[in-house]
Amino acid sequence: MKIAIANCKGSYSDHWIEYCKEHNIAYKAINPYDTDIIEQVSDCDAFMWHHLHWHYRDVLFAKQLLFSLEQAGKVVFPNFRTGWHFDDKVGQKYLFEALGVQAAKSWVFYDKKSAYEWIETTDFPKVFKLRGGAGSANVRLARSAKQARRFVRKAFGRGYPPSNPLFSAKTQWQNFLKGKGRLYDVAKYIALYLFPKLKGGHLLPRHKGYAYFQEFIPNEGFDYRLEIANNKAIAMVRMCREGDFRASGGHDDRYDASLIPQDVVEFAFECYDKLEVQSVALDIVREKESGELYLIEVSYCYGLDEDEFEHGYWTRDGEHHREPFNGVYWMMEEVIKAVSYSKEGTA
């Protein structure tokens, strides 16, 4: 067995390479942006790439490369079922509806007239989102029809930039004041705002030509984030920012197992099974009055807190395990199982 790993420092590849070293698994660290990438991975059984939503080169071709290799018979991570809807909330809307996942109701419009007509018939607030983005940076609350129309006008006009560094800088500043962040992170986002060419952000297209709204679900001021791979889950409660409805990206996460109800773990694994993915991060909200759980959105990958792997993990039987683990290793284990299965099938 030999696994090709897209070697991008600071990404999951650091963990995957370490796993291969620890378990004596042959691997090849490669540059995914080389034009002869197909030839480079030809002698490998699998290809793994932690591609990112904010990297313009990744957005251009990561999915196409992965799915091409998968169609040619190679095991990849993320595979098609796991990755096609990454950073695509519009795609997730259709997927959740088609699979019968209990998710927050959403609406998408591809012309201004249809959006305006819907605004006149619905109630508010509603959550307005761009199809891409993370950390709540591209999420806004339409508290009235007037606000919703303003969002729609811009969506079908000059559109929205793909990132919101000033919002992220504000979040990091609030975290710094609470002793939970670094001035470096504040400065980083301010620099990205002032100099968008630093990370190639100016090469990403603006969001325009569609309007996406999601039902606002009243809750107790937090959501649940569960990150699942290889039938194991990391679970946490994410508190909303002070005076805000958004939890994602706020970095006020609580890993206390007593805060994770049994039905949340069960619901997360039900979604995981329906999606049939190698790995998934699920954002889940409980409706305040009914107590019903709703899936908000998903991602194949997620940011890692410094102490992410120090609070134990859950299994689908509802048991919480406090033994040492590395959640990113679970993705490698999924790939190894798939390679072994494919070899057995061709033996």
From TrEMBL:
Residues 213-306 form the ATP-grasp fold RimK-type domain. One of its GO terms (molecular function) is ATP binding. Pfam families: RimK. It comes from the Bacteria. This is ATP-grasp fold RimK-type domain-containing protein.
